[in-house]
Amino acid sequence: MSKILITDALHENAVDILKAAGDVEVATGLSVEELKEKIKDADVLVIRSGTKATKEIIDASENLKVIARAGVGVDNVDINAATEKGIIVLNAPDASSISVAELLFGMMLSAVRNIPQATASLKRGEWDRKSFKGLEVYGKTLGIVGLGRIGQQVAKRAQAFGMQVVAYDPYIPEDVANSLGIDLMSVNDLCEASDFITLHVPLTPKTKHMIGKEQLELMKPNTIIMNCARGGLIDEEALYVALKDNKIRGAALDVFEQEPPKGNPLLELDNVIGTPHQGASTEEAQISAGTIVARQAIKILKGESAENVVNLPMLPSEKMNKIKPYMILAEKMGLMAIQLLDHTIDNIEITYLGDLATEKTEMIKRSFLRGILSPILLAGVNLVNAPVVAKNRNIKISEGTMKENQYGNALKIVAKGNNDEISIIGNIVDGEVVFRKINGYDIDVKPEGDLCVIRHIDRPGMVGKVGVLLGEYGINIAKMQVGRKEPGGHSIMILDVDHTISEDVMSKLKSMDNVRTAKMVTL
């Protein structure tokens, strides 16, 4: 039974789902050394934002297959370390979108109407109606940095308040933004144009301190900046100066560079309001985040595909169902190629034929790489780490497309080893994987089981001689295919045999007249 380790508080609904699938241990508040010890035999690690799944922790694991982050951000997971070890990282990108968007609006209205400050004054016994005069949000401009799931939820609500919305997001096409009624612009232009600014991007080396002294100096005096995403997106030292000198009106922060923000001078300012990283802290978001990753982790354990994998390309279910047969085909081609090339491959060319040329093919490429790498590596190779492993072995990969061809939707690979190369064309026929051509020879082979591949000169009696030799050693031939380009020339013979042929018999095959090579392939 799989061991599932939960190291942050998780909703009981999610825990119950996981208990039905494995041996669950809930252990929160662990030190690094305690976590390293407990993770050794774990198959799944389930965390929220508290646990840091660093390289040190990941390297301490021996069986880990999944890191499931019950939330959106995965900056507390070393994605590269997990990928290199073949560990799938899951998250729940949709779980807290509405909760964060609603908190953002609570923060914005609280900041612009001074609600926390007025509440504190009232509780002190004061009745000060003049000191807390605010502004309307109606007709103002909201600048959204990051127009993803949460950013778009924020935009909808802002538009309902009668606000103008502008955004910065280099990954959103302009026509998509236009369809949402949003103008795209640069970060600096957004800072100049906006009355309110909200951040909804992950923390990466590229986004760290993306709002700094330069951007703050561009803002209007009445600007309120809000961050319910990740601490570190704003340069807090520059923000402190801008707020203290009243260069901007205020800030509303749910996240900080150091959490908890003990001794943070920003919290000493009257024009700063804050919350303790509670964007996803609603009952609905916690149930959703926990149950989503729990179900996704179970899918992975069962060998099924999951939708919210961070370190794999994302594909809609209908697209995945369409390319899955070609993933199987690609892996079989990889297994065939590596065995025919005596476990040495330096260069790979992959060509997507027919309508396959218009699909997202990253998963097909990964499947082929898993096929060529699995037989030559003791360590596990999967769809997650196959590209990294190939790169580390200096395997060069090129991809191309060809719309028109005689095989319709098909896949062609050319793999080159030390002194040899192999080319294979395959497609799907009646739902089954079929190899249609090997090294230019027309064939019709279902790649499964034990195959003996013989390259020979086309001479009368060759098929009979091979059959007789194998018969002498009790080897039954289930199926046979022979492909040639012209009579009397080089040919290829593929035998589907009931079991692997011994090295002794293979040596006899190789020594037969007109046989150039003979190799066993197990698929």
From TrEMBL:
Protein keywords: Amino-acid biosynthesis, NAD, Oxidoreductase, Serine biosynthesis
One GO process term, biological-process aspect: L-serine biosynthetic process
Catalyzed reactions: (2R)-3-phosphoglycerate + NAD(+) = 3-phosphooxypyruvate + NADH + H(+)
Pathway membership, UniProt: Amino-acid biosynthesis; L-serine biosynthesis; L-serine from 3-phospho-D-glycerate: step 1/3
GO MF entry, a single one: NAD binding
Signal peptide coordinates: none
Pfam family, one: 2-Hacid_dh
Enzyme Commission (EC) number: 1.1.1.95
ACT domain location: 451-523
InterPro entries, per the entry: ACT-like_dom_sf, ACT_dom, ASB_dom_sf, D-2-hydroxyacid_DH, D-isomer_2_OHA_DH_cat_dom, D-isomer_DH_CS, D-isomer_DH_CS1, D-isomer_DH_NAD-bd
Annotated family: Belongs to the D-isomer specific 2-hydroxyacid dehydrogenase family.
Protein name, UniProt field: D-3-phosphoglycerate dehydrogenase
Organism: Methanococcus voltae
